[in-house]
Write a structure and sequence with these properties.
The complex is a heterodimer of chains A (311) and B (292).
Chain A (H helix, E strand, L loop, with lengths): L10 E3 L2 E3 L3 E3 L6 H8 L2 H4 L6 E2 L16 E4 L2 E4 L7 H13 L6 E5 L4 H12 L6 E5 L15 H11 L7 E4 L7 H10 L4 E4 L3 E3 L16 E4 L4 H14 L4 E3 L6 H10 L3 E4 L2 H4 L3 H15 L5 H5 L5
Parallel strand pairs in A: 3-14, 4-7, 7-8, 8-9, 9-10, 10-13, 13-14
Antiparallel strand pairs in A: 1-2, 5-6, 6-12, 11-12
Chain B lengths: L18 E11 L2 E8 L10 E7 L13 E4 L2 E4 L5 E7 L4 H7 L6 E8 L6 H4 L5 E7 L3 H14 L3 E7 L8 H5 L4 E5 L6 E2 L2 H10 L6 E6 L2 H13 L4 E4 L15 E3 L5 E3 H4 L2 E3 L15
Parallel strand pairs in B: 8-9, 8-12, 9-10, 10-11, 12-13
Antiparallel strand pairs in B: 1-2, 1-7, 2-6, 3-4, 3-7, 5-6, 13-16, 14-15
Helix pairs in contact in B: 5-6
The chains are: A alpha/beta (311), B alpha/beta (292).
Chain lengths: 311, 292
Amino acid sequence: MAEPSSIDLATEICGIGLDGPVLNGSGTFDALAARKVFGDALIEDFPFDCYVSKTITMNPRPGNPPYRLWETPSGMINSIGLPGPGLEGFLARDLDGLAEFGVPLIVSVMADQVEDFEVLVARVAARDEVAGIELNVSCPNVHSGLIVGEQPSETEALMKALRPITEKPLVVKLTPNVANPHEVAVAAEAGGADAVSMINTVKAAAIDPTVNRAWLGAGAGGLSGPAVRPIALAQVRAVAEAVTIPVIGMGGITDSESALEFILAGARVVAVGTENFRDPRAGNAVKDGLPAALRRRGFASLAEAQSATLG
Amino acid sequence: MPAEAGGRPDRVQAPFGRRLCEVIESRAAGGYRIFTLADQTGPPPAPGQFFMLAASPDWSGEGGRPYLPRAISHARVSEHVKGGLRLDFLIDEVGPGTSRLARMKPGDGCWVAGPFGGRFSLPKQLNSKAAGAILVGGGIGIAPMAVLRRELVDRGIPSRTLLGFRDQQHSGGIDELFGCEETRLAYEDGSSGHKGYVTDLLLQLLEGDDSGSAAVYSCGPPAMLEAVRQICLERGLPVELALESPMACGYGACFGCAVPKAEGGYMRLCIDGPVVRGDEIASAMAGEPAVG
């Protein structure tokens, strides 16, 4: 009988070796800001086995006007608007620092036309510090007006354009705001994606409690936290059954038990998002609890859980 | 920003993660409450910094809120007889989070992360000609003013304190936090002190003052802060304001606490503030929280 501590959590995603299956959701943990706040303790005990950057765009963006947050029952709505330094600023100022955390780095990118996506992928993939690239496809294509990630054909076309640019893993971040996410996932795989990550936030709005207007500065935003976990589990399961590429599962993970639920639903690895806001060490807590959680469900290894099928 | 000015760091660094602290007191303070946490492992926070707080267990109440921790500045820090620190917080029940914090009883637990954010500058750092400080507090915003006042007293730096309240009910904490100290008070309902706004007191003080020798600090409702900011900007007086904003994390992760900068774009109030110079921001009104 294996001791809890002897359960090996090492795994891999798209050939990227990981000490464990816990990532962060893009845009939910600014490791550079956290290092300034917490100091080198963050490096010594980094919460994630692989770090996913916030989404990088071609040009610097200020982000959306306030208010950007609204607390909901068991969750929150955000409308942040991808503030960031732009591609050049990221490459020049942020990338070196992100490489110091000692875990593989996946860089999230977004553009509103394929030409910009091509530049972003080429420039980012050319850096040795970068293990993989996540494609944030929740933005409208300026030419078609359609949100890429909501259209299987747009997603497949984008993947086919980007696939020849790099041999590094390309991960498509799927939106939950479609009737059949697995159709988009199948299209991503057909276009050459190495993995999908899901779910992004669920489209949501809030009304100002005192004035008759929308609360969020941008009008609407995305719901996250435990409130979306059941939706995420259903979608992860549907997608995992429809594709052969691995799924990075996320949506309201708060602890090792909920992380394991995603593994059982078909995710290869998981990501912690909103819980990071409540606990800066949420990723550590999820990982630390996994051996016991695996054992409670009768698994001798992470791989057993990853290959288990739900009854 | 006067960060690192004088070789002194602009913030006390937070331990990585959150820690469970014991509630050791909770008492009424006018219409507010003051609760005290025993923080065994955290460092002494600096004036202007804040903590992310969440009652434990049972933080989330009926209806699933609160969910996120709440950003609260300490009102006082002192040594705990059992070791570590006593951290006092002044709380106004304006929503599910602050109400849950106010209901904590001695012996209960409270998750604490922080101290976060940067501190108030010292008067000489803010204004090299400053002979002293003027502190302008309003409502529960008197809490960080009390912490700053105490530090200035300890350092032998002269300061004058102006406090404003809507009415007696909304002046909770004043006796406990400023009891023995000289303050000038304004009540909007005229129940005590000057009848009117605390900014009236500030204008009176500045008329009789060599304005060039002051450094002004303020914390309170957004409309008050904006009035203080305008008064100081018009007179070329350096001023630091402690702002509030809806905030999920406190350590730069969520990007939710955006405050418009004077130069355009936004700052993250949790790591670039919560103390900002008056000329850094476009307005003190922009980030007013209403989530409680």
